[in-house]
Amino acid sequence: MFPTQLDSPLAWEIAKAIVDGFNRHYHLFRTESARAQHRFETADWHGQQRAQRERIEFYDLRVNECVRRLEKQYQAGDLAMGIWHQVKLHFLGMLVNHRQPELAESFFNSVTTKILHRSYFHNDFIFVRPGISTEYMEVEDENERPTYRAFYPKLATMADTVREVVESFGLHCGFEDLARDCRRVADAMLWQLANIKLRPNFQIQVLATLFYRNKGAYLVGKLINGFVEIPFALPILHRTPGVLYIDAALFGEEDLLILFSFSRAYFLVDMEIPSGYVQFLRSLMPRKPRAELYNALGLAKQGKTLFYRDFLWHLRHSTDKFRIAPGIKGMVMLVFDLPSFPFVFKLIKDYYPPQKDTTRELIRSKYLLVKHHDRVGRMADTLEFSEVAFPRERFEDELIAEIQKFAPSLLEISDRDGDGRTEVIIKHLYIERRMVPLNIYLQEAFDAGDDNPSAAAQMQHAVVEYGNAIKDLVAANIFPGDMLWKNFGVTRHGKVVFYDYDEIEYITDCNFRKVPKPRNEEEEMSGEVWYKVGPTDVFPETFGPFLLGNPRVRDIFMQHHGDLLDPKFWQDHQTRIKGGEVMDVFPYDPARRFGMAQAASAHSAEVDADDDAPSDPVDAGSVSETEPSE
Prior knowledge:
Elements: H1 9-41, H2 45-55, H3 58-74, H4 81-94, H5 101-115, E1 148-151, H6 158-167, E2 174-175, H7 178-192, E3 203-207, E4 211-213, E5 216-225, E6 228-240, E7 243-246, E8 250-251, H8 252-259, H9 274-284, H10 290-296, H11 300-316, E9 323-324, E10 333-337, E11 343-348, H12 360-372, E12 383-391, H13 397-406, E13 411-414, E14 423-433, E15 436-437, H14 438-448, H15 453-475, E16 478-479, E17 488-490, E18 496-498, E19 505-506, E20 511-512, H16 521-525, E21 537-538, H17 543-547, H18 551-561, H19 567-578, H20 594-604
Parallel strand pairs: 2-7, 20-21
Antiparallel strand pairs: 1-3, 3-5, 4-5, 5-6, 6-7, 6-8, 9-10, 10-11, 11-14, 12-14, 13-14, 15-17, 16-19, 17-18
Helix pairs in contact: 1-2, 1-3, 1-4, 1-5, 3-5, 6-7, 10-11, 14-15, 15-18
Protein name: Isocitrate dehydrogenase kinase/phosphatase
Active site: 381
Keywords: ATP-binding, Cytoplasm, Glyoxylate bypass, Hydrolase, Kinase, Nucleotide-binding, Protein phosphatase, Serine/threonine-protein kinase, Transferase, Tricarboxylic acid cycle
């Protein structure tokens, strides 16, 4: 029972200490995010990457710091539950005018669950549901930056309004030709509004801070006309250090979903009221869960909190059962899913076949590497949980038997909470977005037959995207290790994403070699490897027999990605990365780039480039934003 009055000064002090701990965390988080503008302006790409990586650790550091203070100063673990009741109520009161209450509540949960026994993890002691509303929250000081700004253009002066929008962000770098860029953006916006009658509420709304990621800065907003809202994003890049240009204009929910994908690095954004940013982004991408938007903004713990709330809500309103996930079973990970829920659950097995020379600790380190690394749109983000309780009646017996066989150390079946319900408790697991395994995607095309045009297009797309995924990973200094089709998945947008991390390595740690020529007939005819192979040796020529057994697949692969079988491709990229080059990976279709579109138009009209308006110089092998390597 909750107390009828708050009579414990100690409870108030503990609540205040937790609020102070969170405020310190968010101050450091905002400070690091705000510095992203300076790193962008000075083209400090390695510093930007380092900040993206290190900021992920901020939350756990501050939680542990707060726990140590509470234990040392108040012996928090020994306090009566009546005091903890009051702590939560005091804490709620302190959040009434707080600008990040939802984040503070998650911080409270993190701190208290490290101190209290698991049997107390229920609504009396933590925030299973949010306690403070974030609706209509906004800064009150007119001198402070609001969540978003509104601009009211006229058709005849649209480019001038676009310029006003861009200049409102106060970037300290000059643009190569801002007037040209604003005309391009205005033309693209007017094309989106073609054949639409302008309404009295015609306006442009933009979030008040730029979104920084690696070498790019993104202006995010929407066009509003009557009941029509058109999301857009403008990527701003460096032509040369200190000289900026707007590279493209992206429109519509699909473009933004790809930009904010779960397979990309988190943005650096300075936000006073993060819930306001999430609410605005939801208006641009209504199908994207709030959990993933908080993740994209770098607030991964809040994303994890919301994901778990969504998961519990889904369990309450569904009746299907957890099962062994369809597809080829892995040697290292045991994977299960709930058919009605768009995620998969992955456990590290207790033991592995002899060819897998690894350990649980090493596998966890690989997943942590991916969490901290730039995922370049080609590696799925994962949520890591411990001590997760599921209702036993929702598990198929076959799945329970599978876990008992391959991962018994991670399984407990009991009524740990003493509430009369038996639970399946998984001691450690990873959760990631469900995708169609690439081998199944290809098999569907094979099964449809050679004469089916749709199947042929699906196979072409799968093979080309598979090679593109590997090349993007290479640009990010990642060697996938096990490149079999089954270790890649296809997203709703048709992107091929890698999701089997137990063998990944940095490209710079590998030794890419040609297969030595046989010295005699005996070696040439041998079915065994007759040459020495070191622990970091990789022989790209040997990929073919494992990947390209189907002649149609081989033809497509060799046409588009035959260079992946040549050690020189890997060695050249290795040299560039070791030399400090930050390579670019495109988060949008290269055809969307203003310079590329202009060049394509000029080519199709057979106009000589010297007679056309100057276009952006683009290296044929380069890309734009820039999801660079470590």
